[in-house]
Amino acid sequence: MRGSVDMNFLFTLSEVQRMVRAWADREAARYGITRAQWAVLAKIERNEGMKQSELAEQMEMQPITLTRLIDKLCDNGWIERRGDEKDRRVNRLYLKKAARPLLGKLAGLRSELTATALEGINPADAHRMLAQLEAIKENVRNAIQNPSADASGKEQRYG
Length: 159
What we know:
Blueprint: H1 2-28, H2 35-46, H3 52-58, H4 63-75, E1 79-83, E2 91-95, H5 99-117, H6 123-145, H7 147-158
Antiparallel strand pairs: 1-2
Helix pairs in contact: 2-4, 6-7
């Protein structure tokens, strides 16, 4: 069993991510938005007033790439940049009123996508899987932040 998981886990995880991204892009296009723009709107919705630089860091995105996305969202009238009162070099991001109905539709779309992806999986298993994915994410985050500890732990576990 371990060999099978070792051979297939990362490949399957990557394939699922690629397929979900392509599917979400296709479905978001019905609302005139890309998946990347949707992700930016969702982050701003959860944390209005955040700095543009904080958002780039959270999204693990180059600032210039994020700036283009934000420019497009501003042009569409969904968000606005406001200067920081204490530091005029800083832009803070806020949703505009026009974004609220779109975000409502996108929340419905997210629920549809999730329901389709989890079809045939009982809710308890889905919750367990989500908790396990969170644990995997934390393991990988720790390995990235602590590379030497990861190497020694790996030898002890698999060596």
